[in-house]
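ok, trying the design again with the full structure, not the truncated one.
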C-alpha cells in the first residue's frame, strides 16, 4: 500500500510542480517581483530545476536531504507571506508555497526517496548469492550460474524511466575497461520489458550484460523487489507497475557476496571507484 501511495504521490507532485511553476511565472509577470508570486516561485522553482536537471543531465547521486532545496522552499514560503500579505490571492499563494513547496518537498525527501530493506538483510558479504533465473534482451534464459567462475558486478536498476539509473549505467560503462581488467562481468538487471532493455543495450558499445528479470522473480528471491514502485502513469509507456529497489552486489569467483549496497535512498548510490577498490582488495584479477 505504501508503494502505491508513493507511485501516485511522485506523479502528482511533479505535475503540480510544473503547473504551479507556470502559474508563478504568470503571477510574477502580472504582479511584479515584489508580490507574493515571487515567494511562490522561490518555493517552487528550485525543485522544478532539480527534476529538469535529473532528466537532462547525467546526475547519478544527490545529497540525502537536499538541504539547500528545502531552505529555498522555506524561504519562499516566508517571502510569500511577507510580500503577499495584503494580496487577495494570498490564500492561493500560501497553498502553493506551503503545500507544494514546503510539504511536497519534505514528503519527497523524507518519505518517497526512502525504502524499507528488511527482506534483503541476508545480502551481506560472506553469504552465497541465491540461485535465480533471468533472461537476456532477446528472451533467452540466463541462470545465475553464469556469475560463478569469475567476479561479477550485478546492478539492479528500476528501468529506462529512472534518470538516476540511466546515469549510473553510463557511469559504470565509462569504467568498463577498469572493471574488465579485474576480470569482472558486469550485469545490469531490470524487470522492464525486453523491448526497453534492447533499446538501452543498443546505446552502449561495451559488452555489458543487459538482463531482464521477468515478473520480478529474481528480485523477489533476493528481497529487492518494489511492488507498485513505478510512478503512476508510466504503464502507458509499457512499464510494469512493479520495479526494484536500486541494489548493487559484487560476488567473487565462487558466487560469494563480497560487497552489497542496499541503499535506503534511491538518490544515494555508490561510485564505480568503490567497485574497483572492492575487487582489488579481494585480490581479484583477470
Amino acid at each position: 500500500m505504501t508503494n502505491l501511495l508513493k507511485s501516485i504521490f511522485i506523479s502528482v507532485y511533479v505535475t503540480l510542480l510544473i503547473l504551479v511553476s507556470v502559474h508563478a511565472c504568470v503571477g510574477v509577470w502580472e504582479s511584479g517581483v515584489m508580490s507574493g508570486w515571487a515567494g511562490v516561485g522561490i518555493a517552487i522553482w528550485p525543485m522544478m530545476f532539480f527534476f529538469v536537471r535529473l532528466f537532462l543531465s547525467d546526475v547519478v547521486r544527490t545529497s540525502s536531504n537536499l538541504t539547500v532545496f528545502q531552505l529555498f522552499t522555506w524561504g519562499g514560503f516566508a517571502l510569500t507571506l511577507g510580500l503577499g500579505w495584503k494580496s487577495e490571492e494570498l490564500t492561493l499563494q500560501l497553498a502553493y508555497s506551503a503545500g507544494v513547496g514546503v510539504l511536497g518537498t519534505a514528503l519527497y525527501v523524507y518519505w518517497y526517496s526512502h525504502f524499507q530493506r528488511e527482506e534483503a538483510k541476508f545480502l551481506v558479504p560472506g553469504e552465497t548469492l541465491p540461485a535465480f533465473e533471468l533472461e537476456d534482451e532477446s528472451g533467452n534464459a540466463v541462470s545465475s550460474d553464469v556469475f560463478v567462475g569469475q567476479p561479477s558486478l550485478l546492478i539492479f536498476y528500476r528501468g529506462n524511466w529512472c534518470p538516476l539509473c540511466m546515469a549510473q549505467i553510463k557511469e559504470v560503462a565509462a569504467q568498463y575497461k577498469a572493471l574488465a581488467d579485474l576480470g569482472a562481468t558486469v550485469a545490469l538487471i531490470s524487470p522492464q520489458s525486453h523491448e526497453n532493455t534492447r533499446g538501452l543495450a543498443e546505446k552502449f558499445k561495451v559488452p555489458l550484460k543487459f538482463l531482464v528479470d521477468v515478473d520480478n522473480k529474481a528480485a523477489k528471491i533476493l528481497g529487492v523487489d518494489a511492488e507498485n514502485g513505478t510512478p503512476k502513469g508510466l504503464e502507458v509507456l509499457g512499464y510494469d507497475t512493479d520495479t526494484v529497489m536500486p541494489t548493487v552486489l559484487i560476488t567473487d569467483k565462487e558466487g560469494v557476496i563480497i560487497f552489497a549496497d542496499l541503499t535506503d535512498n534511491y538518490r544515494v548510490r555508490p561510485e564505480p571507484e568503490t567497485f574497483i577498490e572492492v575487487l582489488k582488495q579481494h585480490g581479484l584479477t583477470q
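Keeping the full-length input from now on. The domain at 118-281 is CATH 3.40.30.10 (Glutaredoxin).
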